[in-house]
Amino acid sequence: MNEGTSSPGRPTAANASRIDPPPAFVERANVTDRSIREGFADRWPECWDRAAAFLDWSSSYDRVLDAANGYDWFAGGALNASYNCVDRHVEAGRKSHAALKWEGRLGETRTYTYHDLYREVNALAAALRERGVEAGDVVTTYMPVLPELPVTMLACARLGAVHSVVFAGYSADALAMRLADTESAWLLTCDGYYRRGTAHDLKRKADNACLRAPQSVDRIIVDRLDDDRSYGDNYAEYATLLDEYAGETVDPVPRESSDPLFVIYTSGTTGRPKAVRHATGGYLAQVAWTSHAVLDLEPGDTHLCSADVGWITGHSYVVYGPLALGATTVLYEGTPDYPERDHLWEIVERNAVDVFYTAPTVIRAFMKWGAEHPQRHDLSSLRLLGTVGEPIDETTWRWYYDHVGNGACALVDTWWQTETGGIVVSTLPGVDGMRPGTAGPPLPGISADVVDACGEPVDPGESGSLVLTRPWPGMALGLGDSTGEAPTAWRYETGDAAAVDADGYLRLLGREGNALNVAGQRLGTRELEAAIVGVDGVAEAAVVGVDGPQSDTALYAYVTPQRDAGSAGPLRERVRAAVAAAIGRFATPDVVVFTPDLPKTRSGKVLRRHLRQIASGERVSDTEPLRNPEIVGELESIVDGVS
Ligand code: 6R9
């Protein structure tokens, strides 16, 4: 555990030196015009025309933003996301260009040209149509990062159906909740997947989830494992369907700009994950434009984003952004240290990757393993490095810049959320200087403020809450309680703490309140706590995350057992198993601390701040708000004993 009060996950240096973008990068960057910011600022919302111009519309829109009835971006326009990500590149003569390159966990590789992608998306869309899928229906997927996953997303989009991608690491319970909540009557899954060379059964979890769903679920299964299992009558085989429908085509169904493209679940403020819906036109425009302006992608580039497709980062920057631009996206199924700690660098070298996008937690792991791993490879194809998911500290930033980028790449620290759809805070790499540990200004067209508890902007350098004060195209449907408000009154509270420096760069300071960032993914403490409190023998629970010096957030679960709970060992295992079952193994607490009570205010609120300080070995100075201050000393000695 980390000691003392420093928190390496948080940037501290407000005035870290600026690094100019490498001249060789600027020379060929997509965006180099410094006036772009003014152009956007004066012409909001019309400035977002530039983003929509990256798409082909089957009917052009009449208004950039219609604020009369919620916030309707590119109102009156119609388009199809599958057409934009596939057909138009084929029509433009890029049939034989690589669209997807898949790097499997057992070292397998598969390449899909845009023409291959076109054929498979069409065949699957024909099969889904035959199985009753229509525009507006929700189709669920539950599989690891296989090429079949983006193919399914694009086949749904072609039909105007809404996809709901469920991360394969989630439990049967988590899948069942999502199936029921969306009333989804189709599921595409696979038999299992490999982790560190060992096969894991996914079909069993999918079966369990379907049993629990109130509706009947039509199932299609991808054969991933090397075994002879038969799947039974409930499943159609993906490969068989592709053969059956080979050569069939499905006309892309035009969608209104505000029709949903997909639904994705994220941690909200309550114990239950919340459904976030993204609109076809605004979302696709935002991810295409940011892929161009921030990730600097262009047709012919090879992009590797290490995120799982099941998270929003995978939706936006593994699938939709790069494919909308006609680039090559590398789908990475693996784990960075399997079979070797240079696995990712080997992939970068072999595919001559131009742009690499990952999370600080991954970079910190690389840093721990040592610079010799990237050094062993020729990474000179890289031109831009990106990071997302949590604050990146200056040390990690510099390591990434020096040892992966060899001091010659542009580096973007991109801040955004499931709700924002795409990047909203970042430097423009061909225009702005980089400042390690500081994400950058809001992108042109985005307005942000850092405010105090009364909603007043704080002084430069002071920390406060980050709010976005104008809508943007990639915003989730219905965000910020939009109905009826004039655009000037609209605001969206991001739930992140931040400070804005004198030059307008934002320093992100982590989540406020009850959300946690684990391995770059957002989890609500309430979701974890709800799972723990459901365990027989548990009276109460509170979960906090603590940043380790080099590694991920460590999860501490403070648990008050019931009087007749039995011995601690088995209860601890039941707590861990309950979290694994409700959410997934990746969310299992690192440390379970049993305590007779939790620190509480007089009104009974659990003070997680105190629990965080105790877990990180800091002194708890401020016991004034506590109803039970004596618990602090007791907890300090218990935690000392277990961590
Ligand atoms: C894209 C994604 C969103 C939360 C967000 C914030 C954290 C993301 C960050 C960052 C500091 C960055 N976050 N990018 N914090 N610097 N560059 O991660 O979406 O899973 O919804 O998480 O992640 O706390 O509020 P999501």
UniProtKB/TrEMBL annotation:
EC annotation from Swiss-Prot or TrEMBL: 6.2.1.1
Domain AMP-dependent synthetase/ligase, first and last residues per copy: 93-472
A molecular-function term among this protein's GO annotations: acetate-CoA ligase activity
Region (Disordered): 1-22
SUPFAM superfamilies linked: Acetyl-CoA synthetase-like
Keyword terms of this UniProt record: ATP-binding, Ligase, Nucleotide-binding
GO terms, biological process: acetyl-CoA biosynthetic process
Pfam families: ACAS_N (PF16177), AMP-binding (PF00501), AMP-binding_C (PF13193)
Domain of life: Archaea
Domain Acetyl-coenzyme A synthetase N-terminal: 44-85
Domain spans labelled AMP-binding enzyme C-terminal: 527-605
Coiled coil feature spans: none
InterPro entries according to UniProt: ACAS_N, AMP-bd_C, AMP-bd_C_sf, AMP-binding_CS, AMP-dep_synth/lig_dom, ANL_N_sf
Family: Belongs to the ATP-dependent AMP-binding enzyme family.
PANTHER family: ACETYL-COENZYME A SYNTHETASE (PTHR24095), ACETYL-COENZYME A SYNTHETASE 1 (PTHR24095:SF14)
Name used for this protein in its record: acetate--CoA ligase
Organism in which the protein naturally occurs: Halarchaeum nitratireducens
Record lineage: Archaea, Methanobacteriati, Methanobacteriota, Stenosarchaea group, Halobacteria
